[in-house]
Write a structure and sequence with these properties.
The chain is an alpha+beta fold. The chain folds into 2 domains: 9-48, no CATH class; 60-138, Glutaredoxin, CATH 3.40.30. Helices cover 43% and strands 13% of the residues. The protein is built from 6 helices and 4 strands. It has a 4-stranded mixed sheet with strand order 2-1-3-4, with helices on one face. Strand 3 (116-118) and strand 4 (121-123) form a beta hairpin. The longest helix has 12 residues, at 9-20. The termini are far apart.
Length: 139
């Protein structure tokens, strides 16, 4: 006998995020109705988890660490160079939807800063010039 498996809310949100790259408003309305929950409660869940987004994001998510150890190793110079190169601020996405920039507190490579994560690839001991070369490879 087959068991009926209902996805948890988080599984459903992950699936939508994987499909669209973010969670569109029409999906939020659909989920809220199907689960008989207020949209505000669903937005509370989405905003609680940093991996969920309600706005379109870039194909390449660039995360630059600015924790104390990376900051002491001049992460600020890497960040400023990336911002200038892409023409965006932290939390923004380029107009062509290619890059989203996030400044984060820690990427777990504290002895190797500055550290940048592009999607799931880690780059350590970066100079501003190396960071730009990496981004140029994404184009």
């Amino acid at each position: 006998m087959e068991k009926f498996y209902e996805k948890t809310l988080l599984e459903e949100l992950h699936d939508i995020q994987d499909t669209y790259g973010y969670i569109p408003e029409e999906q939020i309305i659909r989920i809220a109705k199907s689960r008989n929950m207020p949209k505000s409660q669903l937005y509370g869940v989405i905003s609680f988890y940093s991996m969920f987004h309600v706005e379109p994001r870039g194909r390449y998510i660039i995360r630059v660490c600015d924790s104390l150890s990376c900051h002491l190793n001049n992460a600020e110079n890497v960040v400023e160079t990336i911002k200038e190169y892409l023409g965006i601020e932290s939390g923004e996405t380029t107009a062509d939807k290619k890059f989203t920039l996030e400044i984060v507190e820690c990427l777990g490579h504290c002895g190797e800063g500055p550290v940048m994560l592009v999607n799931n690839k880690v780059y350590t001991k970066l100079t501003p010039q190396q960071a730009i070369s990496i981004l140029k490879e994404c184009i």
